Amino acid sequence: MTTRQLYRLRNPATGREVVMEAEPGEIYLDHDSGEPLEVVGKLLPLAPWPSRLPWAIENLRFCPWCDQLAQKDLNDCPTCGRRMGPLTGAERHA
Ligand SMILES: [Zn+2]
Q1: What pLDDT is recorded for position 82?
Q2: How much distance in Å is there from the Cα of 85 to the middle of ligand 1?
Q3: Cα angle vertex 37, ends 42, 40, to 5°?
C-alpha cells in the first residue's frame, strides 16, 4: 500500500466534481459520461501530512479522543488536534 493523495477532479463539460485518489500524470474519466476529468485541486489535510510514516495499517493507531486513525509517530492527532499521549503498547480493539 502506498500513500495516495486525494484530488478534486472535475468534468469540464458538466462541471460535476468528484473526489478520488489520483496519481499525477494519469488520465481519469467521468464514470457516467466517459469524458476526461481535469484536476482542480488537492484535498487537504492529506498533504502535507505531519507524519513521515507511510499510510499503512501497521503504522496507525486510533486517537483516544475522536477515534480517527493517526500515525503512531505523532503526538497530536491530525484530525482533532488533541494530544494523544505516548503509546502504551496496549492495542486497542473495538
Ligand atoms: Zn483525534
Answers
A1: 92
A2: 11
A3: 30
Residue 63 lies in a domain: yes
What is the full DSSP assignment across 21-83?
A: EE-TT---B-TTT-PBPEEEEEPTTTSS-S--S-S-GGGEEE-TTT--EEETT-SB-TTT--B
Which tops the pLDDT comparison, 11 or 56? 11
**Do residue 12 and residue 35 come from a single domain?**
yes
Percent over 90 (pLDDT), the chain: 6
For the ranges 2-6, 8-12, 88-92, the lowest mean pLDDT is seen at: 88-92
| Sign of the Cα pseudo-torsion (79, 80, 81, 87, in order) | negative
Compute the distance from residue 61 Cα to the ligand 1 centre, in Å: 10
Domain count, the chain: 2
Q: How far is the CA of 82 from the centre of ligand 1 (A)?
A: 6
